[in-house]
Amino acid sequence: MDTMSDNTSHNILSQVNGSSQIVITDSKVQKLGSSANYVKYYKGTVKFGKGLRIQTKASVLAFTSCDGEAADALYVRLVAVNSPFTVKPLSYGRGIRRYREYTFLAVPPPSCLLSNYTDGFNDKTVSMKRFTEEFIKITGDIVRAIITLHCQGYWCSGLKGKHICIYKMEKCTDAKIWSFCFAGGNEAKKSEDWVDLGKLLELAAKRNDSYTAEIEDLCKKLKNKTLRGMKVLKHSALLNVREKFENIIALNLFILVHVKSQPQVPSGDPEKDKIISELVKFMNASLQWAKAMPHWITQSSNYQAPTTETGLSFIDGLRDLFEHENEYIPEKVKQSQSKIQLVGRDPDLECQLRLNLEKIFLQAQNFVLELDIEY
């Protein structure tokens, strides 16, 4: 994409049924995204309606033959998909006179791109070495966009942060993909989108010094193509603190109902049987976890030291802690609320458990994911 040569405004007549017009109001090229992963665009408006009397602000993307993309083809794809997780195009057109080599796509102006979250430090991406709820919401939108595109025969073809627009309105943050290609029934191409998503999440974590065992586990599963679809959003790295706590409570109940209370009989699903067998081994394994618990928990009058430190006692101990969390907080802390909270302080309980007991805490979370246990 090249910069236009002067600073006058230019009318570009749209080819959308002759009912709209793109106007570039500032021919100085703008950049959106990170310093190394950005798109170039121009400030403009789109006029439409009877007599072109209605107008709305737009970011106008310009393409030439060197870009390997034409605005009209991209417009057609975006209109065809018509999803809340893809950008809604406003209009497209071809340049006139000395700008005839350009094609233009007008879209609602984004607040930023995904690359602003992934390519450098951003406190909106990570907090306490876990993804923020805002970034989890953005990732959820991307996952839903990929699923929608695959269902309609498209793929993202080298998904990068610059291909995803972020729109912020009041307290709502939405992610929308704008660049994708036709794949038809080529499942190999579609599967690469999950690999690229794993790379983007890995980049975001590493650039924010937060590539923990939990996030690494998520990224490896995406890059190895063993995790895809809506199940991606059930991985603990993309859950908020409360949902991780609920996972442990649900796992404890699953063990009581389906594992401890009845003999292990083959279910007819070899993969599920294998996971349950691994769960039983985890339950009986000696894990030595008590010393890694936060001191303000172990010093609480409600804390009972485990007689045996196994996976089962770990899960049951966490279940009791999460169900009665307020009873474990020392009274002086409740009054001051200046030093310790289960959620929201740095580091909070989830952060301490995840970092101090990262292997077994992640194992427990993954059993919930693999067995598809619901709270």
Automatic annotation (TrEMBL):
It comes from the Eukaryota. Keywords: Coiled coil. Residues 201-228 form a coiled coil. This is Expressed protein. The lineage of its organism: Eukaryota, Viridiplantae, Streptophyta, Embryophyta, Tracheophyta.
